[in-house]
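Entry 12.
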Amino acid sequence: MKRSDAITMPRRAMILAAGFGQRMLALSADLPKPIMPLWHTSLLARNMHTLHTWGVREFLVNSHHGATAVFDAARTACPDGCRLTFVHEPTILGTGGGVKNVAWFFGDAPFWLMNADVVALRLDPAPFLERLRRRGTIAACWVDTMRGPRSLRIQRGVITDFATATPGTRGTATFCGLHVIQPDLLRYLPATGFASIIDAYRRAIACGARVAAVEQPNAFWADVGTPARYLQAHWDTAADFANQDVRIDCCVDPSARVHARATCRRTVVWPRAIVGPKADLTDAIVGRHAQINESGTGLITRAITALTPAEADAVIKHHPAKALNALTAITYPARGSRRNYVRITDSQHRLMLMRFDPQHEENARFAPNTRFLRRHRWPVPRILAASASPAAWLLLEDVGHRSLQDLVAENSESALRLYEQVIDHIARLHGPLTEAALDAGLPLMPAFGATLYRYERDLFCNQFLAQHAHGPPTRIDTIREALKRVARLLQRAPLVVLHRDLQSSNIHVRGNRPVFIDYQGMRLGPAAYDIASLLCDPYVRLPDEWRASLLNRYQKNRNAVPLDLTIYGYARIQRLCQALGAFARLGATPQGRSFTAHIPAALAELARALEEGPQLPALHDWVQELLSPNRAESATNAGNKLVPPRPVAPQR
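Predicted 3D structure (tokens):
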């Protein structure tokens, strides 16, 4: 193709709208991701408008999932005077295959290629075209060197490779989903079939072509591929749409109905949804036609769009409503496990659906553990239905919204009485139920031993001390050695069946009785680990007199195993270090950032444990520095000798 020194504004653009939308979960079952609204206007419409202001007069939109809805939305959004071509892909072709499939559309002039789920504001097209004019440049891509995964390798404004750089290192950037491309690039794509545009770029670069990296620091970019990013994009762009007279913490479609007494925080409400007076929503997306009149977070949709046929059959069989169209599904954000929870509700009766990866060993233990515990009248949810194929899920009775964490936060007078019941149940688990589990040969997760203690120790040292606290390796090594000796001392304790994650958020309240959840990690270990998890919980701050009383109650319980207070001091440190490592690891992920909010409380608990129990000077000094950032730096060569904790006499 003969290249001109001057490149006019491209008149043609392709918007990539052919995807599955699987990361948007139940939302995309109702509305394909490209036409989800951002401040009442679909993503597709916003991007078509942007490209139109740049001179585009011919659009091509491809589709796969939800093709009819995408086509209708594209036809409505297409600016006046523009031509729209729509291509459906029965078999998804990928970013490169989709482009090659419509090579006839582009002609011999440069064209824009844009992902439909990108939010682009305050972007200037001129720098893209200026870079494309340079000799040997086959494309100019929008990049961001500050945000996103930053996996592109950049040198002097040119992309040298895609998705191979160490994320976040110097000379890296994130591709933002928009490029202007010379038609020459199409010859680096296969004639038919699935292909990635990245493969074409790599082949072109290998043949000497240049792919320019265009950064615009004042522009706004967001990828709304997940519910969390979709929500965040609203709050990040609220100021840009202030003329729409919207609240910056809540986006309600004009056709939706939100009761004046409802509470909505950082919530998006889609068309024709109904939010009742008892609704208390936080970080929620309420889908089209959904109805909610209770607490909720995550995705709130009609149950009919959230469930598979097999799941729907089980729900209809066990829910009193017996009608799927009368039910709402609340799909909760994923936390630290390979499990997803969906609450099925009509605001009066509820069921809980747990979807899980059966290849993850802990998940595979949930059902047998539940059946064993229920046989022995230990309070856990009842399994109503189960499926292992083609997808693994369990339908459970719902044990309610409230947990011990909520009761303590509310200063409820009943919280102490519930903790006392929990202590009695844990004493049974450590005593008679341990014997029953061993007699029955109940398969459990690997017991606490050298391997598991090493895993928890490495989690703390590598994720919290090294990655989160940015500690020097020599100092971390000193603490690692101290924690090795903590583990050796804990291994001397008798082994009992543990809940393993015995914290307030995993103990729900039904009526005036506790119900345990998240016990799939049950294994043999020291009883002190469970007691430390309960009494030194970062999620709540129990009064000192409660801790002493509950510790005393466990020691006096006839079902409990003897609790060595020295071992209990070591268990406090072990469990809190594990919690800090987990918070740091989960907090480093986009969906788990909220876990970092619990780090200060966990650090404060660890400081108390180190003051009242074993003396680990190196760890003690570092924890104090983290709690008091202005404190003078302690000597890095502090010893790490273990001194047994001061015994705490139980109250009589």
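Annotation: The first strand starts at residue 12 and ends at 17. Residues 12-223 form a domain with the Spore Coat Polysaccharide Biosynthesis Protein SpsA; Chain A fold (CATH 3.90.550.10).
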